[in-house]
Amino acid sequence: TYFGIALLFLGVFSFLVYLNSLGSIVGGYLANNRMLFEGDRVDVTSSVSFLKKFSSLIIYSTYILWGLKSVNKSKINLFFYYVGLIASVAYLFYTAGRMSLIVFMATIMITSLTLESKRSLIKTSILGVVVIFIMLFGKSIFQIFLYDDALDRSFDRIQDGDPATIALLDFVGEFSFPVVSFIAALDKKTDWLLFKDFFFSFTYMLPAGLLPSIESTALQNTKNVLGIDRDIEGIPSDIFTYGYLNLGIVGVMITPVFFGIFCKWLDSYKRTINNPLLSILLVSISITIGFRVMYFDQKHLLKGSFS
């Protein structure tokens, strides 16, 4: 319990210090680039931006506190779990990432389902509907706090054509970037990156300027897809594109092999499904590892899954 509470305090403290470094806690919270439409975005930097990674500990502490309160519904466990839940929602809203929100909800719900003697079709169906809705309208949901017409733009766009077809293409399109990335990598003739961002990935966790960071594979991938003038890693590299950008066809062959060896090693641990704390940690780690197929570059891993 104390470990989970300590992680929660560390995450909340890091988040508040980071926000305050942007001018004020409230101002920093509202100055969120990811909520803005592309044409309105401006660069927001801070001397303590590295603390944003530690802010993600809020999520993991909430998982721990969920597991603990499932075993022991003491007042202290329940109190700090709800504090963590509120803090998690606030942090996820700030990051404005649909996938982060889906993963957070899915981790708790999937763990609940694994602990039940009978699988609930209703709960599974509800999760599926919520996931599809967030994938289609998640951006607009986040943006309605800054734009009055955010949801209207999405609905108008769908109504301009066949609603079913556009909605389906939007959903499928969310998972199409690995194909686009790999085709762009084959088309562009760039020097191999030789897995430098893997061996020097620790530099991504350090404060900016302390050590020079290695150019990420995601940055090269973004340049390939959107143009060489890009300086933000907007398109993460999938497992095949990552291998190709680092060592060509040889990289495409060896990267999945080593990933498979790691997955086998992780899967060798015995799972105890009647232990809520162990179950939610294993579900969380499994989802994180599973997403590496689509989001394989090291910077994205350490940035999005630091906790």
What labels describe this entry?
307 residues, mainly alpha, 15 helices, 66% helix, 0% strand, globular
- As a percent range, the share of helical residues equals 55-70%
**Global outline:** globular
Sheet/helix structural class: mainly alpha
Q: Ends: how far apart?
A: 17 Å
Number of H- or I-type helical stretches: 15
Number-wise, the strands total: 0
Average residue pLDDT: 79
Could you explain how this protein is built, in words?
Helices cover 66% and strands 0% of the residues. It is built from 15 helices and no strands. The mean pLDDT is 79.
Give a concise summary:
With 307 residues, the protein is mostly helical.
Please describe the topology of this protein.
Elements: H1 2-20, H2 25-30, H3 51-55, H4 57-71, H5 75-95, H6 98-115, H7 121-143, H8 150-159, H9 163-173, H10 177-187, H11 196-199, H12 217-226, H13 239-267, H14 276-290, H15 298-304
Helix pairs in contact: 1-4, 1-5, 4-5, 4-14, 6-7, 6-14, 7-8, 10-12, 10-13, 12-13
